[in-house]
Design brief:
With 562 residues, this protein is mainly alpha-helical. The chain is built from 22 helices and no strands.
């Protein structure tokens, strides 16, 4: 099988999704209204609520939701074969992720930019909100804690990525000030990307390493530094750092994707991975349901709904921008996941099928490192760039994505804690500084309390992320579906993805529950049970609300007929 055919199939599918399916959903189902006054205008405070150019907002949304997951997930899932991974990425992007992301933006926009957990109260009920918030907080805790570890490990293993990663922050601060003063966006974009890639070259010839300090390892020190940075960044007005950093990262991804996809057409590597792996290890998990939680970002992800309703909806300039930001953001992530599949399935990573089997000798034996190695070889073969520069470029891409997700994640965690302050009438939690300290404190407590001096405690609960994140996606689609039913609009386009995602993720949760129990990991058993029971209660509550609503409508119709 030729990699070019995979790429062409994916591009054609994504084009259908954007030009045909998303237009239908936006016009006929969500009915996006250009005259609707968005919360960004209604509550404009210059800090969190800021009307934003849709291209800049797309950059923020895309890089916030992308993280390292659309790279790590597909790179692991190829273990079952490249065909199931490719099909789930393409079909998931078109019919699941795009609808989920743009739908969460639309629903939040119609409810004063409330988070998906908060707006569930208005759509379903007060009890649902409290249950929803438990799952949302757990997902954010996992993402923030683990991405801190991912970035720290990348800084230690690839010190050439340190300089460009921090240089990107300086570039973003300058661009933020320029955009705020109405400088030409195209000029800023070009200049920012040039400087960013110049910093990649500097990093490749000037790697930076952090020495051991205060008795902690370099990884642990990086984790502390990263959370200190994230705390400060999360309290700054979005236009100062969050928007421009995400925007410039989105632009550098365009360049990175252009290099990777261009290299496929120039190098035209054959696929060395099997279409379906018939040499699975005895301990390998079943492809169903695990495939659908291993590849989350890049197909559909509950974390996207948190970002869409938590930060992006507060910056939506016009309601129709929800299609551009939400659906096109999902398409961009799908394209990243697709090229990851090509990079780890082709001769760019393993010259022969036997070599590929040696790398993928067991489930989880490959991941982001395989993407960096395969992608760098792909770029080198296609464009002739030095391998060390290509590796630095891709490592920087992974770090920047994880960093922007962490930035948004801490800000979102702060929102959740402030909402808890309102729900439970604890005024001190409404304070942004206090809420941020609680959010960061919870992550650091998990990192060092459970992980000791290594700071890698987040990894302990990470095995829960796949099923929990996808259960959250199902719950988000449920809220959107109930909202559509109440508006008298067709809900099939969100209900079908909701049923599929929830079923697969719930089954995956049961599978991991048994595994955690057999391993004697009772902390994960308890947390897994909490997520499973909570999600079931939300589903039952929603079903009750829908039935009551339909019964009321039927009664009204009977009265009108009589």
């Amino acid at each position: 099988m030729h990699s070019v055919l995979i790429v062409l199939l994916g591009i054609v599918g994504m084009c259908f999704g954007w030009f045909v399916y998303s237009k239908f959903i936006a016009a006929k189902i969500f009915k996006l209204d250009p005259d609707f006054v968005t919360p960004a205008h209604e509550f404009n405070d210059g800090v969190d609520f800021v009307p934003t150019n849709k291209y800049v907002l797309w950059g923020h949304h895309f890089t916030s939701v992308a993280g390292a997951a659309p790279i790590v997930g597909p790179a692991i899932a190829v273990y079952w074969g490249w065909v199931p991974a490719m099909l789930w990425v393409i079909l998931g992007t078109i019919f699941f992720a795009g609808v989920h992301d743009s739908g969460a933006l639309w629903a939040s926009n119609r409810h004063k930019a409330r988070s998906i957990g908060a707006l569930s109260e208005a759509v379903v009920g007060a009890r649902t909100r409290k249950l929803f918030m438990v799952v949302v907080f757990l997902v954010l805790l996992m993402v923030n804690s683990v991405f801190g570890v991912v970035i720290a490990n990348a800084f230690v293993s690839t010190p050439s990525a340190v300089f460009p990663a921090w240089a990107a922050i300086v570039v973003a601060l300058i661009i933020g000030q320029c955009v705020h003063r109405n400088f030409n966006l195209v000029v800023l974009c070009v200049a920012g990307v040039v400087v960013l890639y110049l910093s990649v070259w500097v990093g490749s010839v000037m790697p930076l390493e952090l020495p051991s300090m205060t008795g902690l390892t370099p990884q642990a020190n990086w984790i502390i530094i990263l959370f200190a940075y994230a705390a400060i960044a999360s309290m700054l007005p979005v236009w100062v750092l969050l928007q421009p950093r995400d925007f410039i990262n989105g632009m550098q991804l365009f360049v990175g994707l252009a290099l990777l996809y261009g290299a496929v057409f120039l190098f035209m590597p054959d696929i060395s991975a099997p279409a379906f792996n018939d040499r699975l290890g005895e301990s390998a998990p079943s492809i169903i349901p695990l495939l659908f939680v291993t590849i989350a970002c890049g197909a559909v992800s509950g974390f996207h709904g948190i970002v869409a309703s938590g930060t992006s909806s507060k910056q939506l300039n016009k309601e129709p921008d929800a299609r551009f930001v939400g659906y096109l953001g999902a398409v961009g992530e799908g394209l990243l996941a697709l090229i990851t599949i090509v990079a780890v399935s082709s001769v760019a990573l393993a010259a022969t099928s036997e070599a590929w089997y040696e790398i993928y000798d067991e489930f989880g034996s490959a991941g982001a490192g395989s993407f960096i190695q395969g992608g760098a070889n792909l770029i080198t073969s296609g464009w002739g760039l030095p391998t060390n520069v290509a590796q630095t470029l891709l490592a920087t891409m992974v770090v920047l994505f994880a960093g922007t997700t962490m930035d948004s994640g801490v800000r979102l965690q702060r929102y959740i804690i402030q909402e808890w302050g309102e729900i439970y009438r604890i005024p001190v939690l409404n304070n942004a500084v206090v809420a941020t300290l609680v959010a960061v404190g919870a992550c650091l407590l998990l990192a060092f309390g459970a992980g000791g001096a290594s700071g890698a405690g987040g990894m302990i609960i990470w095995p829960l992320f796949g099923s929990t994140n996808q259960i959250l996606a199902g719950m988000t689609l449920l809220v959107i579906s109930v909202m559509l039913i109440k508006l008298g609009r067709p809900a099939y386009f969100t209900m079908v993805p909701m049923v599929f995602v929830f079923t697969m993720s719930f089954l995956a949760g049961l599978v991991t529950l048994v595994q955690f129990f057999e391993d004697g990991n009772y902390l994960l058993v308890v947390l897994d049970l909490i997520v499973l029971v909570t999600s079931l209660l939300v589903m039952l509550e929603a079903a009750s609300v829908v039935m009551s609503f339909k019964n009321a409508k039927t009664a009204e119709a009977e009265i009108a007929d009589s």
